[in-house]
Amino acid sequence: MKVKKILVSQPKPASDKSPYYDIASRYGVDVVFRPFIKVEGLSAREFRQQKINISDFTAVIFTARQAVDHFFRLCEEMRITVPDTMKYFCTTESIALYLQKYIVYRKRKIFHGETGRLDDLVPALTKHNKEKFLYAVSDVHSAAANVLDKNKINYTCAVMYRTVSNDFTADEKFDYDMLLFFSPQGIESLLKNFPDFRQGEMLIGCLGSSTAKAVTDAGLRLDIQAPTPKNPSITAALDAYLKEHSAD
Question: Which domains does the chain have, with CATH numbers?
């Protein structure tokens, strides 16, 4: 089938240099950014129910920008002053740089990984094993924390935000040839919004093994998957698919 319109279930990229725009131009497809899920922060009252005192910790682990935003929001709402001595451990450099929105970057102790995986932070975490780490997560955080357990990191998971379905409106068109998903929650939202969903010829692509499992567990057909040895990203997998099928 010829792909003309693709739904990417993520927010629109902040930069016009996104690979999606190159793909849209190269193959003449319409790429629409429309998240199936959205993030809501926990209220200070909800957070207190976890009986976690942020002031007890000397370091914070961040795996997403949302975690950064909600950590500092909760601190402000609960009138907690984050000390200058607080250390920050981020899974990517972009998350580390994002901290500049809240702190004076050059005056703080900030560490970051390169791959985006928690495993990549382990050397830095073990080097600072005297710290008491707060791991800022969402309500659907993955089993990645097992990495911390295996390496005997002294940490506490703190749920600071939740992922909920971003519902479609009655007048919102759903006329896509391909859907791209990035989390199991995206699949849950698809089925919540469209309980009678029938895939038919519509193509489904995803990023990550847990998302792929959610697709197949829902009885849907998975047409594109990343990462793979040939296609390390979803955009690489999408480009390869369109290239192959545009030549048919």
Answer: 5-36+167-246 (3.40.50.10090), 40-163 (3.40.50.10090)
